[in-house]
UniProtKB/TrEMBL annotation:
Segments passing through the bilayer: none
Family: Belongs to the EIF-2B alpha/beta/delta subunits family. MtnA subfamily.
Protein name, as recorded: Putative methylthioribose-1-phosphate isomerase
Residues of the site described as Transition state stabilizer: C165
Known role: Catalyzes the interconversion of methylthioribose-1-phosphate (MTR-1-P) into methylthioribulose-1-phosphate (MTRu-1-P).
Catalytic activity: 5-(methylsulfanyl)-alpha-D-ribose 1-phosphate = 5-(methylsulfanyl)-D-ribulose 1-phosphate
GO molecular function, one term: S-methyl-5-thioribose-1-phosphate isomerase activity
Source organism: Candidatus Nitrosocosmicus franklandianus
Binding residue positions for substrate: R56, G57, A58, R99, Q204, N255, K256
Leading EC class: isomerase
GO BP, one annotated term: L-methionine salvage from methylthioadenosine
Record's keyword terms, sorted: Amino-acid biosynthesis, Isomerase, Methionine biosynthesis
E.C. code: 5.3.1.23
Amino acid sequence: MTLDQKNPRSNYLTTIFWDNDSVKLIDQTKLPEKLEIITCLTYQELAHCIKRLAIRGAPAIGVAAAMGLALCAVKSKATSKSRILEELKSAYHTLLETRPTAVNLKWGLDTIFRELDKYETVEEIKKNVVASAIKLSQEDIAINKKLGKFGSDLIKDGDVVMTHCNAGALATVSYGTALGVIRSVKESGKKISVIATETRPVMQGSRLTAFELVHDEIDVSLIPDTAVGHLMANKMIDKVIVGADRILRTGHVYNKIGTYQVALLSKSHGIPFYVAAPLSTFDLKSSTEEITIEERSVEEVTKIGDKRVAPAGVRIFNPAFDVTPPDLVAGIITEKGIIYPPYEKNVQAIFDGI
Ligand code: MRU
């Protein structure tokens, strides 16, 4: 079986799929050396995969969380509706606690939970939770293709586009958001080259973005994070497109650490900085004070593989995300079109139109 045969809707890498009461996913900790599939039989195993970044990227963990609930449902031995609902609530909390910043995780869980009241029996709940999780995974691909097309109109033939972290097939079910735009440009027949930043310390740029673009034969060059300003100053970048983990109604964008620096440098060199994200990444309720920025382990910074690259005893800060303020964002590419400033007004208008 190749990865793609399981998902006839996508010709690209498929990161996660439902398979005979189990969840299969690419183990992203093994990339780029090995393209290995893990099978999760319980929601606890899936929660562990999210925590240790075997699956990561906001839309992918949203779908993974929904599939976690589906695993909980199908494995349940409950004989009453109240009992299976209790089990699902416990799974909801375990899955929600895996990572704090990407809002898609909660969105995936809430989307499944909203439906539960409709069903009477344990069997109905099992069947429908699985069906809804599979539907979410299929919709993710369709949404990425739509936003990819909108974003493609922003790109001129021959453009060089920089991206940070991985907002590709590997960060979604397939196709990607920022890299979905790149794929759509290529499908339209325009020439495009990508500059990927390494994205220290977890290296999503070199391990994942470079991997999937090389895999799909899309022109890509890899640079150290520290080279962004130099390339921009030397007019080697036409546009920047990144993904997002959470976007507030004000247009504040939470994304991989380093995104803010890239946005500031883009502004100072007059390079348009775009964000590509589905509407499931928007959090219209919270303010910046309420969002938790995930702090990850110090070993991500002190070691490269098994080799120590910092002295024992040094203090480490390792925030996994940062916030890019709206004045640095030229536009937000969604499946409903591109949102331009002023964001407060135009984000609301997109949601009012749904
Ligand atoms: O820590 P990660 O790898 O989950 O962080 C991922 C990112 O920051 C991505 O840019 C974001 O989730 C957008 S994915 C379409």
